[in-house]
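Sample pair:
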Amino acid sequence: MLDLETAQKQVLEICERLTPQAYPLADALGCVLAEKQIAQFEVPHFDNTAMDGFALRAEDTKNPPTTLKIAGTILAGDKPTSLPSVNSSKMSNNLKSNSKIDKLKNGATENDSIKHATTNYAMKIMTGAPIPKGADAIIEVEKTKEDETGFVEIAEEVKEGNYIRRAGENISKGQVIISKGKILTPAMLGVLASQSIYEVSVFPKCRVGVVSTGSELMEGSKNLPAGKIFDSNRHILLSLIEKAGMEPVDLGIINDKESAILKAVEKASKFCNALITSGGVSMGDFDFVKKVLTQNKGSAIQVAIKPSKPLAFGRFDNMVIFGLPGNPVSALVSFELFARPGLRKMSGFKMLERPRFDAVAAADFKREPDGKTHFARVKWKWKNGTYKVKPVEMQGSHQLQGLAEANGLAIIEDGNGVTTGEAIKLICLD
């Protein structure tokens, strides 16, 4: 009987990382990046405004309130332009001479025009638009008052650089934007798209076939004949595979016949990177999964753990096979301890196992020495700065309801168990 660490090492040795492939961004979410990505452009590409408002020279607002003439409007997507400068005395003469026209067209008075004569220019600007040359600040529209004569009143002094997003302040050209080995998230895909990168080299998500073996299994019927049971393991395993970041493939149920099992393995090897079976790995006369694997240079081992002592694993052509026990709790524990780490290694993940935490027992975990590490189904809560765990009532390897109530596994080393208040190791399943 092998200890857990040795068995896990043997499993990982046969699980080789898949060859990286070029994926379009639409298919790359959740995949592990195989090559670092370098920025080809600055982001932002140009100085632009973070707010709707007015682009201006900060020095023109030093004695608020300030009135500025609106020289135009800049929209997102417009070409860069320049903020004009003005001679105050010329503008004063011009405004005085045209005061009658102002009155006719806009209802402004000559005094209004004279008041505006000491001002400079501002430009109305929308979020994301390029900052005009000559402007060095933005005043948000909420702090301005635009009149009908084409002027805007600024109520307060504006600091240089206010609400300006500088070119390259987010990403500079040549920097590493995403490191090799990162799991691609939606935000990372956005970063890549901002660099006009629409295809990346990733480790493919491992394609994992799942089959349940057993002549007693059935599904799709409301009637359950004597001696039959509904298949649950396949649905558990398919969900666990997807949650772990791989691509599950449902291969259904097959009978306890060596020829049927071999045929299913051969079929899966044509389009799957890995195959998981449940059932047929114990010592019985009809445990053919173990027989098929060992005849094809696989291994059938006994591991010093409870539940889930028997395990079979190996390769068939280029496909890895995991033969898990038939009891649902044993199948889940075997998946977590052996199949999940192996599959994640194949898919390029760095973190292979579930997170493990130091916890405190909120109840007694009784057991007797038997040379095995026990994995108890538990409920855990975060309380007073630590994880508190207690066992669910049903701990049998066949008791699926107890498994459904659990959100973690507690590791109980060989010995007499753990008493309330003592330290205990927790594997989180949530």
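The CA atoms of residues 410 and 426 lie 5 Å apart.
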